[in-house]
Amino acid sequence: MEVVVTRRGKRRSEEARAGSPRAPYLDRHVGPLPILSEEGLQIIEANADCILAETGMEFRDDPEILQIFAEAGCDVDGERVRFASGFCRKIIQATAPSQFTQHARNPENTVRIGGSASVFCPSWGPPFVHDLDMGRRYATYDDFTNLVKLHQTIPWLHHSGGVVCEPVDLPANKRHLDMLYAHIRWSDRPFMGAFLGAERAGHAIDMARILFGEAYVAENPVLYCVSNTNAPLVMDSHMSGALKTYARAGQPVACTPWTLAGAMSPSTVAGTLAQVLAEALASLTLVQLVNPGAPCLMGSFASTMSMQSGAPTFGTPEAGQMILAAGQLARRLGVPLHSVGTLSASKLPDAQSQQEATWGLMMALFAGVNVINHATGWLEGGLVTGFEKTMIDADLCGKMMRFFAGIDLSENAQAMAAIAATGPGQHFLGSEHTQANFLSALFRPDLPDNNSFEQWQAAGSLDMAQRANALWKSRLDTYEDPGLDPAIDDALKDYIAQRKLEVADADYF
Description:
By secondary structure, this protein is α/β, with parallel strands linked by helices. The protein folds into 2 domains: 38-93, no CATH class; 100-404, TIM Barrel. The protein is built from 19 helices and 20 strands. The protein has helices at 12-18, 38-55, 63-71, 87-95, 141-153, 175-186, 198-212, 214-219, 237-248, 269-290, 317-333, 351-366, 387-404, 411-414, 416-422, 432-437, 453-458, 464-477, 486-501, and strands at residues 26-27, 57-59, 75-77, 80-82, 99-102, 111-114, 117-120, 128-131, 135-138, 225-228, 234-235, 253-256, 258-261, 296-299, 301-305, 312-313, 337-340, 371-373, 378-379, 384-386. Strand 5 and strand 6 (111-114) form a beta hairpin. Helix 6 (175-186) runs parallel beside helix 7 (198-212) and helix 12 runs parallel beside helix 13.
C-alpha cells in the first residue's frame, strides 16, 4: 500500500520549547534490539505451529468464522480450530501488507504504520481517572473530552486513541457513539474505532464515512481496531465480530493476545512467546481469509504477575524480554507490530510509575513496535488514567522520540566551523552557532526542575506531579479547537441520535 509522506505540524511554540520538531510519527533510526538467536526464533515458531496443529484455538459463538476456516481447509471440531503446520504463515505472508497509512481528517496528522515508524497512542480503557485535586474517581464524559483535548495539545502523541477512559455516566451500550464523536470533534488526529461486537464496529465505520466520505473509506484506512484474544487460545464473538467488520471494510486490525505470564500463559518467557505467536497467527489468518490484503498487525500485550499476590506486574525484566522477542517474530512474519508502552501498577504518578513506564516504553521502542498503545496516562494496572501521569509520560515520549530518531549528522550539527571559530580554552555560550541552535539542539522537557535549591524553594517546593498538575490545566486553558465542518457535525449528531433511539429503554444499560 502507498505510504503517505506528511508535512510537519503547526505548533511552532511547542517545537521551540521542546527543542524538536513535531512529527506525525517517530521514524526510528536506533535499533531494533534482537534478543533471540536464529535458533531461538525457530524454536518459538515451531512451538507455535505445534500449538496450532495439536491444541488449536477456539472461536466461540461465531459459526461464520468456523465455516470460513473449514472452507480454507482447517480442521474444525465444534468451536475448536486446528491449523496444519505452516498454514497460517503462508496465508498471512501471501496477502497481508507490511505497512500502510492511517489517514487523519487533517492530512498533516496522517500516520505511517510499519517499517521504522512508531506511532504513540494515549491510555486506553480505564474506568477511573485520577488527578491531584479530586483523587481517584469514576470517569465521566467531561473527563473523556478533556483527555481528548489534552492529548491534542501534546506534540509527542500522534494518535487520538480510543477509550481514553470509560465515561461511566453514559449508558454502556450507547457511549461508544459519544466517544467516537469526541475524537472526531475535538481532535484532528487519527483515532480508533469501537472494538466490542460487529454492531458497534459498524457504527464506527458509518461515522467514518460521514467524516471522510464513503468512497474514501472504501479505499483508505481511517480507523484502527484492536482485537484481543481471551488467552489462553480463545477468541469470543465480541472480538471476532469487530474483527470481521473492520477487515471487510479494509480497516486495520491489531490481533493482540492479552496475557499475564503465570495466569493466562505459562510462567516462562519462552512458553508465553509460543502461545502469543500461536494466537496472533490464528487471528491474523482470519483477517486475511475474511479480506485478503486487509491491513493488520501482530499484537502483543504480554506482561507478568506477582506469584505471591496474583496481581499484574509491569516494568519487569521478563516483560521486556517478551516484547523484544515479539518484535523479532513480527518482523519475520512481515507485518507491523502493535504493543503497549508506559504501563504501571502504581496508584500515583510517583517514582514507581515512572520506573515502570520508562522501562516499558523503552523496551517497546527497542523492539521496533509500530503502534504503541498506552503511551501516556496508565496507572493501577490499567484501572486508571491519570492526568498528571499523562503529562509526565508526555515528557518521556518526547525524550524517546529524540533518542530513537538518531544522531543528526548534518553540516550544521557537525559544528566544525563553530569549533574552529571558538578555539582552544574558550566557551561556546556566546558563539553564533550556539545562538542559532540553542532552542533545538538539546531536548527541553516541560516538567523537570533544574534550578537551584533556593529557586525551587521560592517557586513553592513543588514535586514533578504538582508541576504536572499545573501543566495539564494550562494546556486545557490554551487548547485550540481544530474545528469541524458544520454540515459534517450535524450529520454526525443526527446519526448518533438515530442510533440511540434504536436501543430500547429496557436495554439502556
